[in-house]
Amino acid sequence: MVFKRRDRRSVPRAILAFFWPKGGWTRAARYVKFRVTRLPDPPHRIARGIFAGVFVTFTPFFGLHFLLAAILSKLMRGNIVASLLATFVGNPLTFPAIAASSLQTGHFLLGTGGRVPMDTQHTLAEKILGAGADLRHNFVAMFTSDEAHWTRLAVFYSDVFLPYMVGAIIPGLICAIAAYYFSLPVLLVYQKRRQAKLKAKWIALKQKAAVDDAKASHSGGAE
User: Fold this and answer.
1) Model-level pTM?
2) Burial (CB count <10 Å: 0-12, 13-18, 19+), residue 66
3) Three-state DSSP class for 77?
4) pLDDT tens by residue, 92-146
5) Which domain range does residue 59 map to?
6) Run of H or E including 125
7) How many domains does one find in the chain?
């Protein structure tokens, strides 16, 4: 298969690569920057795609960020590839800060507290694990006579998912707008410089071709 890895990675290696990619996060960031700046699209469309990708990373819809970024970018008439690359902002190094800011903002807006206390982190983990346990149990209950359980899912929704979803709007918009207005002038300058280099290269090639033609004509006339 074309996209199949030659060296199959073990589960521990795959997990390690997720948290620390080959070459480190600095190299990964440089690669994303390289790809974004070379996208064949006007700067404003690329910047819109970056806006969409950054905003989506603040939402609690993990596993759907690529799809949501592409849809939002399409609605905004932005560059879809740029939106997918911009989801790199959400990574294992930044997700703790993203989650904390979204949850704290959500609890504040919903009136359930201005911040998430440090001593409730264990309870938060229990709520997530409890929701997962209910999901597994309810899936099995669909094919057995067991009764579905919704208590821990309801607690997770009201205490975690809903505050996260509501609270993601403000920090997500702030970071997405900042990314848009930061990337737009950078892309404009880069594309102008690249066009100038390509134009200079084309002129140099044209001049070289003219010199070669003149030499060929001169040598042909001498014969």
Assistant:
1) 0.71
2) middle
3) coil
4) 888 888 988 898 899 899 887 645 544 454 577 788 788 888 888 888 888 888 8
5) 39-189
6) helix 121-141
7) 1
